[in-house]
Design goal:
Blueprint lengths: L2 H23 L12 H5 L6 H21 L5 H19 L10 H16 L17 H23 L5 H29 L1
Helix pairs in contact: 1-3, 1-7, 3-4, 4-5, 5-6, 6-7
Length: 194
Amino acid sequence: MPTWGLLTAAAAPLLLVAGWTIAARSQPGDFDSTTQTISALAGADATDAWVMTTALVGVGISQIATAVALGPATRAGRILLGTGGAFTLLVAMNPLPHIGEPAAVHGVVAAGSFAALAVWPLLSWQRGASTPWALRPAVALSAGSVLVVATGLFFASVLTDAHRVGFTERGTALALNLWPLAAAASIWRVQRRR
């Protein structure tokens, strides 16, 4: 794994948190990050929507670059991580429309991003004594299972219009973007020892 892969893996969660923090500050006083989604910050009705849109583009590019860099992960896992990044780019290109307009395209690409990013660890594991810890079967399968459950809880909160959907989304999105960083760090550590 090239060193830049560690940097791109770190960039995704940093850009995500910076994007939603800065974008939320530019919204009118009644914006509540606990009850409103990240997508609302990049939507057609948002103030300075370009802030969150730009952050999402950076996150998507970082996810794709990280997928390319994670050589020790399986090809299937890396393809799924890259697919999650591509869906993140599509989220940026298909923001939430004005209130009252259909949001089907945005919903589909957002669901695709969350699903791909949740499932990729389940397909990334390798066997062997020198396998980085994040890619060992028990670790990767456990991480993937936790991410799938978290994503399922987020989807349930969207479908039921739960009061804390923004909080659930942010926690899930952050976890989905921290796991590639954990994988990259574990690979980098093994490579440094060699």
